[in-house]
Amino acid sequence: MKGGFKLKKIIIVLVILTILFFISNNNGCKQVIIPKEAIRFRVIANSNQKKDQDNKQKVVVNLEKEILPMLRKANSLEDTRKTLKSNLNKFKTNIENTMETNNIDNNYTINYGLNYFPEKTYRGVTYKEGEYESLVVTLGNGLGENFWCVLFPPLCLLEAEEQEDVTDVEYSSFIKEVIDKYFS
Question: What residues does each domain of the chain span?
Fold first, then answer.
């Protein structure tokens, strides 16, 4: 009887190690590939100095608060285009208010159309450099690191919702439950 129990433990440990191997190779992330018919969103900081990166983040947060609720109603690529184009003045006002409120002393440009994106690797997928349909905000000299996401399909919305739900998630570990069940 003891030999059978020992064999059972060895099998369980092997199963757990196999699961851990597959999880670690996938990094727990799904690969998201941006389709050719996509609209990107990018905010480029003045520089990589902490102050400029903080300023970029303030602009991003305030623009997302305005843009993302608008795009929840957009059901297609064309709806997204129309929404972005018709609200450019609102976005400009948003940026100007953010800059004034936070004493950001930079000029900025905002452009909707084809804009250059450098090569980027995101969640294990490399996206080629090139001209992409996008809404791009450049702060000051635009020499700093940038924020970017995809407005259509609504990958920004999905990531924002994931971040909002983080406090509501309760984690459990299948592996811990198996170990507790068979080894406690």
Answer: 2-29+173-183, 39-167
User: Got the DSSP string for 87-98?
Assistant: THHHHHHHHHHH
Q: What is the helix, strand, coil percentage profile of the chain, to 5?
A: 50, 20, 25
**Span 95-111, pLDDT tens digits:** 999 999 999 988 999 99
Residues 56, 59, 63, 68, CA torsion sign: positive
Question: Is the model's pLDDT at 31 over the cut of 50?
Answer: yes
CA distance linking residue 102 with residue 58, whole number of Å: 8
| DSSP structure class, residue 168 | G
CA 14 to chain centre: 35
Which helix H or strand E contains 40, and what residues bound it? strand 39-44
Q: What is the pLDDT of residues 137-158, one digit of tens each?
A: 999 999 999 998 889 888 775 5
